[in-house]
Design brief:
The mean pLDDT is 79. Helices cover 63% and strands 0% of the residues. α1 crosses α2 and α1 crosses α4. The protein is elongated and about 65 Å long. It contains eight helices and no strands.
Length: 186
C-alpha cells in the first residue's frame, strides 16, 4: 500500500492539512495512521484497499490528528506532565552517560540505535540507583560504595575529575567528531 501513488498523495495532503492547522507530526506517524485507517475501512466494508481510497479525507484525518494532539497536550498539562527535570549540571552519572556516547559510537561503528539503547539503559539505571537506594534486590551489585549515593558520586568524580566539561556542547561535539562521526540533518 505504501508504494502506491494514492498513499503518497494522501500522506502529502494530510501533512499539508496538518501544517495549515499548526500541527507538526512525524511523517511516519501520519503514514502509519493512514495505512491503518484505509486498511480498516477496506476490512469493515469488505472491499479491496484500492477501493477504500474513495473514503479517504485528508482534511478530516488532519482534524482528528490535530484534535488528538491538542487533547494530549491539555491532559498532560493538567496532570503536571511536562519536560522531565534535568539533574544538576554537576551530576557525575549524567556526565558519564554523556561521555559514553562518543565511545559508544566508535565501538558500534556508528550504530545510532545501539548508542541510544546504551544511553537509555544507563540513564534508567542511574535513576534506579538514585531513586531506590534501599532496593534489597540490588544488594552487592553496586560495588564498594553499596547503597550510599553520595559515596557513588564521589567515586565517579574521582574516576572522571572534570565532569563539567561534558555539559559543554562544543566539547561533546568535538568528542563525537574525534570518534569519527558527526550528526547532521538530511
Amino acid at each position: 500500500m505504501r508504494k502506491t501513488k494514492a498513499f503518497k498523495e494522501a500522506v502529502a495532503q494530510t501533512l499539508a492539512e496538518l501544517a495549515h492547522r499548526g500541527v507538526t507530526l512525524a511523517p511516519s506517524t501520519v503514514e502509519d495512521t493512514i495505512e491503518k485507517s484505509v486498511s480498516t475501512v477496506a476490512e469493515q466494508l469488505r472491499i479491496q484497499v484500492r477501493s477504500a481510497w474513495r473514503y479517504f479525507d485528508a482534511a478530516a484525518l488532519a482534524d482528528r490528528l490535530a484534535h488528538s494532539a491538542s487533547a494530549f497536550e491539555e491532559s498532560s498539562t493538567e496532570k503536571g506532565v511536562g519536560q522531565a527535570p534535568m539533574p544538576p549540571i554537576d551530576n557525575p552519572e549524567l556526565a558519564l552517560v554523556l561521555a559514553g556516547v562518543p565511545d559508544s559510537l566508535a565501538q558500534t561503528g556508528g550504530d545510532l540505535y545501539a548508542v541510544i539503547l546504551n544511553v537509555a539503559v544507563n540513564a534508567w539505571m542511574a535513576g534506579h540507583i538514585h531513586g531506590e537506594d534501599d532496593c534489597a534486590g540490588c544488594d552487592g551489585s553496586r560495588g564498594p560504595a553499596g547503597h550510599d549515593w553520595q559515596a557513588r558520586m564521589r567515586t565517579i568524580t574521582e574516576m572522571q575529575p572534570n565532569i563539567s566539561k561534558w555539559f559543554d556542547r562544543d566539547v561533546w561535539t568535538r568528542a563525537v567528531n574525534d570518534a569519527g562521526y558527526a550528526v547532521t540533518r538530511r
